[in-house]
Design brief:
25 strands, seven-stranded mixed β-sheet, 413 residues, 5 helices, globular, mainly beta, five-stranded antiparallel β-sheet, single chain
Length: 413
Amino acid sequence: FYKEAATIACRQMGFGSALQVLPRTPFGRGIGYMWLQEVNCRGNEGSLLDCDHRFNQRPDNEHYSSCRHSRDASIKCRVPRSNVRVRVHGGYTALEGFVHMRHRAQWGGLCKTPLGQWTMAEATVACRDMGLGFALTHKPYFPPAPPVNLTEGVISHWIVGLKCTGAENKLHECVQGGKSTWIGARYCPTGEITVRCSRTLPDLVPDVEAMKSSLSRTVHRQQLFRLRCALEENCLASSANGYYTNPRAYQYAYRKLLRFSASIKNRGTADFVPVKDRRFWEYHTCHRHYHSFEEFTHYNISDSNGQLMVEGHKASFCLEDVLCDSDTSPRFHCVSGTQGISKNCADVYRFDIDCQWVDVTDLHSGTFNLTLSVNPQRLVAETDYANNVAWCQFAYNSSSGKVTILSWGLSGY
């Protein structure tokens, strides 16, 4: 995959020519099918399919082909320059600080304003715009910045509404209301906008195939008194709590559980580690291990209109390396007191462990969507949130307990 092919790929995606072809998958290994190999372009083609190429005979299985995700093509594209420029100032490193934008040849810091927002989505676009990689956090603290010494005209601050989806290439694409909303100010009454960027970040991707293949075809009936730990950790629907006041009913009650496995792989360029310091991890006596996340995953069941049908639950786990690529050694182990998911490793939660289910006792017959969301609150920054949700559509018969899988896939939030 040479620079000519990279240029065709960049132009096909709406960017400029290729800046560089990168070795050794620096953005992490891809997922899914591998369609093309031996791509050779002259540089004037309209798409990669117009170039000389060979289709992979087994795009769904890298074990039957020399075309593997460890050999994914990685490129950098040129992005056309805009009149508005962005930079950071006043941080401890060149990757962080107060966010400054240039508008009409004048630089100014950005103020927080009700006209827009400043979340990880805006921070991600800012870091991308500056060529500083990915957003690590959107609200680091820095001491008040000294005045900016630039050759262009300088004002103190810009008050402008920003709202990004996270997919934009330039921060000025997120400006709300057009150019008339730019207001110059001497100070920020609501505080200044800051960001911390990183060249590398993790990228968690749930394995939808593992979820689909392990999804129980018949709901599992379990006596409530055997689910004491799950009840304490809020892994059951709220209707189960009423049995506490009636010991006899508690002894004979049961719950219907839709079980499935969750395999979550880190395909990014850095390890995924808990945001909490180890001193603040919570020990659970029932399961006899520490939880480093209050909500690492979230399970829900909704109807075709997106209406929540079953109370999902927040799942907290002890994060560790269970399955790793052949060239990667596991480094995080719960028994040794370390938690995280190394890059190119996966943490696996089998369908037969506690809380690896959704309580469907109160669910009626119909067609529904089961969703597994990873890192749902974005407490840990990732390179991509568009692949954090695995979903399965299924038909359910509440009388027989039969489950029929209809479709499945990956999405984001």
